Amino acid sequence: MLLHLNPSSGVPVYLQLEAQVKQAVAAGALRTGEALPSTRKLAAELRINPNTVARAYQDLERDGVTRSVPGGGTFVADGLPGLLKSEKVKRLRPHARQLAVEGRQLRLTREETLKLLEEELDKLGGQP
Amino acid sequence: MLLHLNPSSGVPVYLQLEAQVKQAVAAGALRTGEALPSTRKLAAELRINPNTVARAYQDLERDGVTRSVPGGGTFVADGLPGLLKSEKVKRLRPHARQLAVEGRQLRLTREETLKLLEEELDKLGGQP
DNA sequence: CATATTGTACTAATACACTAGTACAGTTAG
DNA sequence: CTAACTGTACTAGTGTATTAGTACAATATG
To answer: Which residues of chain A have pLDDT under 70?
Structure first.
């Protein structure tokens, strides 16, 4: 696992962990069924409280990214439950709107903003 | 002004105000030089404390969206200071990454995610 | 000049976020 | 079965965000 924290960023530790795990899963660096480090191992490695890691793992499970089993460990879940596409779009639209507004605010052209998203999508690789 | 609050959303009031003003400016509903309601007027209308509105106006000024003058009022600023494109991209990339990751998490195709952003960009209208 | 209206600065109360400590319960390994 | 692991539940403390109250300073308006 390649996890690094930025203690002075102001972003809560558990959110940093969640974002990095989500990103790793989305990019295919962590594959379905693969085990994440145990809460205590990761906590010791990062010098933080195990409960902080546990908090992140709980949120990830709530979001359907992982599956935690007491005594067993935490693993990358296989695909989200079948959400309706309309529901997916409903969840995603606020993020898209924010990107659009911020881009316009910075006087970027429509094409420049789209290009930026394309780059980030490409970084995640083709559908692995 | 068309501002509506969602008290039960958990999102701080001043952030809701900032987002809506930014969106209105980006969409051209508020044009350069146009005056925003005074802190007290808007606060009275929304039944909140004037300082909460002031907080939002301060942040908007910090972000270059508006310009506040004591005794005068708060107005929509004209265009951002000339930021280097590299700096703009640096600010925007985290938003793009988040959208990309969330989209992948929901098993949306690259095209579907891009389409969503196009829609939101279109909602803001051609460069007004 | 005088008065009302603007944004600003300061203080403060309340709530909640964040992290940590400790004990518990289930699973695996020997 | 025992021991060492796993995640979970509960409590608790520290800080900070959020909002509000009040007084102040600058501008506009008559």
So the answer is: 1, 80-82, 128
Domain of residue A51 covers 7-76
**For A50-84, what is each residue's pLDDT tens digit?**
999 999 999 999 999 999 999 899 999 987 666 78
Which pLDDT score is estimated for A9? 85
Interface contact flag, B26 A100, Cβ < 8 Å: yes
**B64 and B105, same domain (yes or no):** no
Query: What single string gives the DSSP state of each residue in A72-94?
Result: TEEEEPSS-----HHHHHHHHHH
Q: Is residue A2 included in any domain, yes or no?
A: no
Phi, psi torsion values for A77, nearest 5 degrees: -75, 160
| Interface mutation vs chain A, best among B31, B101, B108, B122, most A CBs within 10 Å | B101
